[in-house]
Design brief:
Oligomer: single chain
CATH class of the largest domain: Alpha Beta
Radius of gyration: 39 Å
CATH topology of the largest domain: Rossmann fold
Strand order of the largest sheet: 11-10-12-13-9-14-15-16
Helix content: 40-55%
Number of domains: 4
Mean pLDDT: 78
Structural class: alpha/beta
CATH superfamily of the largest domain: P-loop containing nucleotide triphosphate hydrolases
Number of strands: 18
Largest sheet: 8 strands, mixed
Strand content: 5-15%
Shape: flat
């Protein structure tokens, strides 16, 4: 390996290992010849030695040029340069180099060498370009022959199967070598592309395509053209892991959900759209949900809220990494911003979403007017909220009172809050009329996915896609495969990546510092329900892995049996708080620390030991002083909206319409519990929300 020696002198760098061009090469040769002649004359060197060296150099360069397959003129020019240079040096040694004749002839030789080198350089470059062009023409001829064969074959096939005579405009081979696209003109007389699209299965069978491969027709550049995508390799048969590239994404530039049969990624644009994902048990729907959450986690302008009434299983893998304390000394934020696993928590989440959307409509009027748009400008500072609701379509058609209440709120979010950046992704177990009968979902969910996994029961593709002509469930027999359609891409075969729990953990850690925070306007509207979403009293169920069998008499251990069903009062603080013993045993201490640092959520005060062991009724819900007065959440929300500057006690009293003395006492107690932070500045003392402390 050559070593580059650089000498710096007054800003000039000389690279002695650099190659020579025509001018520097000729200059180097002539100065070398003159130096040899001068030193040789002084040392009385025999002249014939220079001629011998030049002859050897000419022979060596000739052999090297032949090995490199250089042109004859290039080889001749190099050999001549050696011979002429050695001849001049021999003559100068014999007659002396220190005269005008020697110097003049040397200058002529140098100019001639430079001109010859320049000429042969151009010639060699032209030869190289011609060789490349020749190879390209050869490939083009071979490819053209292949394309002409494909064009002729498919003209006959479409004529035979569909009764249409096409004129092939172009055949584009896919870079992945898994198929090709035919661009063709339809015959005159009003023939449309769907006459070919509806014969997808027959064309695939006539072409003897492998299982999982299709010949799918779609609109061309105008209504008189058609594109036929022919897949020749079943890329959906193999399990493809989720890409290891966790680079930032945006709701505006698209979120990848899978790949087509030509191995191209499918991007979803959900700024104004909702989405619907349908898949029976075993089709890979849960894996698809994790792929969707992975895309949202990578986005810098999306906050993800998840509702999963099935024990929160869809969101747990995205929360657990923030709870196990494996952030290598740094706090790790969950991959989702809120998780609801119960009807109560889901109601809190949906109520907060509605408040946010309605408040954004009023608070951001000036911003939208300045941007000259009727859509809220979504960014890292004002993020979009994506509600991912597992089996949400079933909630919409359920007759259970609790689910009907949720369904009404889900439809309100879907119907009213598009412009304000709140959209939904619903999943369902089947594509049936009962599930997809809601016109609101069909109208708003323009991005639709049908995972089939080969299952045919309850999967009516015509109810999912309006352009389902020629789509057959048998074409997607593998788990994690199915059909996907977006406003930008018609319904067609697709596959989604396989994502495993370890990769989910990696994504959570890699994107932890990328998640946006809810803007102050929205946080004010969301109130204490949002600010305290990670309180250990509301997340204790995540770490509660203990199971205790009931006693033979039907009562659970630690509870007195009344001897009759429903006997006695059991207020239990209106069922709003878990028992303190369960809180202390079920919540991991490290998770409490991380959440209190990262999210600054107030720690719930431990009940005194005497209260834990005291039998009788739990009337804590009726005692104002224990968790603070009923207006305290409103005050906390106002402090959060006030930001780092905080608020004086008098201002808080005015905000909640209460007496100043009682407000001061309640705020002092809240600060002692850690729910607020007090900044003592004399007459300018303020209270600050922990998030801004």
């Amino acid at each position: 390996m050559a070593t580059t020696h650089t000498i710096e002198h007054q800003g000039l760098a000389l690279d002695w290992a650099a190659g020579h061009g025509p001018i520097t090469g000729a200059l180097s040769a002539t100065t070398g010849m003159y130096a040899v002649a001068t030193v040789g004359t002084l040392a009385h060197m025999p002249p014939t030695w220079a001629l011998a060296v030049g002859t050897v150099g000419a022979i060596g360069h000739t052999a090297s040029g032949l090995r490199q397959k250089l042109a004859a003129r290039t080889i001749g020019a190099r050999a001549a340069s050696w011979l002429v240079g050695s001849g001049w040096t021999t003559w100068a040694l014999a007659t002396g180099p220190l005269n005008w004749t020697a110097l003049g002839s040397l200058a002529v030789i140098g100019v001639s060498m430079g001109a010859a080198a320049r000429s042969v350089g151009f010639y060699e470059e032209a030869r190289e370009l011609e060789a490349i062009a020749l190879a390209e023409r050869q490939v083009a001829r071979e490819l053209s022959a292949e394309r002409r064969g494909i064009a002729a074959e498919w003209v006959d096939r479409v004529q035979r199967v569909c009764g249409i005579t096409l004129r092939i405009v172009a055949v584009e081979m896919w870079p992945t070598n898994t198929g090709f696209t035919i661009d063709a003109e339809l015959p005159a007389g009003g023939t449309t592309y769907d006459r070919i699209a509806r014969e997808n299965a027959r064309l695939s069978a006539d072409a003897r395509l492998p299982h999982g491969c299709t010949a799918a027709a779609s609109p061309g550049i105008d209504q008189g053209r058609v594109l036929i995508d022919v897949t020749t390799v079943n890329v959906l048969a193999a399990e493809v892991p989720y890409p290891s590239d966790y680079s930032p994404l945006s709701i505006h530039t698209g979120i990848p959900w899978g790949y087509r049969t030509n191995a191209e990624e499918i991007l979803t644009y959900l700024r104004e759209q909702c989405a619907l994902v349908v898949g029976p048990t075993g089709s890979g729907k849960t894996n698809m949900a994790h792929v969707i959450l992975a895309g949202f986690a990578r986005a810098t302008d999306v906050l993800t809220w998840v509702i999963d009434l099935n024990a929160g299983s869809a969101g747990l893998p995205w929360v657990r990494p923030a709870m196990d304390g494996s952030g290598q000394g740094t706090a790790v934020r969950p991959g989702i911003d809120w998780l609801a696993a119960s009807h109560e928590e889901a109601n809190l989440m949906l109520d907060a979403a509605l408040r946010i959307g309605l408040y954004r409509k009023r608070a951001y009027q000036d911003l939208m007017a300045k941007a000259n748009t009727d859509l809220l400008p979504i960014s890292h500072e004002i993020p979009q909220i994506m509600l991912v609701i597992d089996e949400g379509a079933e909630i919409l058609v359920s007759n259970e009172p609790e689910k009907k209440k949720l369904a009404r709120k889900i439809l309100e979010v879907t119907r009213m809050l598009r412009a304000m950046g709140l959209r939904t992704v619903l999943t369902a177990l089947g594509a049936t009329g009962s599930v997809l009968g809601n016109m609101m979902i069909r109208r708003e969910a323009k991005t639709r996915v049908a995972l089939t996994g080969g299952a045919t029961e309850g999967m009516d593709l015509s109810k999912m896609f309006t352009d389902a002509r020629g789509l057959r469930i048998e074409q997607a027999p593998n788990k994690g495969t199915g059909f996907m359609g977006t406003p930008e891409s018609p319904a067609a075969l697709f596959g989604t990546w396989r994502i495993l729990p370890t990769q989910i953990r990696d994504i959570v850690h890699a994107t932890s510092d990328r998640h946006p925070r809810l803007d102050a306007v929205s946080a004010k509207a969301a109130g204490a329900d949002y600010a305290r979403r990670w309180d250990h009293g509301r997340t204790a169920w995540i770490n509660d892995h203990q199971y205790t069998a009931p006693d033979p008499d039907g009562s659970t251990p630690g509870t007195a049996s009344t001897g009759r069903a429903g006997g006695g009062l059991n207020l239990s603080a209106h069922r709003e708080q878990a028992p303190a013993v369960a809180e202390a045993a079920g919540v991991d201490a490290e998770f409490e620390r991380l959440m209190s640092v990262e999210f600054n959520t107030p720690q719930l005060e431990q009940e005194p030991e005497s209260r834990k062991e005291r039998p009788g009724l739990n009337l804590s819900a009726l005692r104002e002083g224990e968790g603070g007065p009923d207006w305290l959440p409103e005050a906390i929300a106002a402090l959060y909206a006030a930001g780092p500057d905080g608020m004086k006690p008098a201002a808080i009293a005015d905000a909640v319409s209460r007496g100043r003395e009682s407000v001061r006492k309640a705020l002092k107690a809240a600060a002692e519990r850690g729910e607020l932070v007090y900044r003592d500045r004399g007459p300018h003392s303020v209270y600050v929300h922990p998030d801004h402390a």
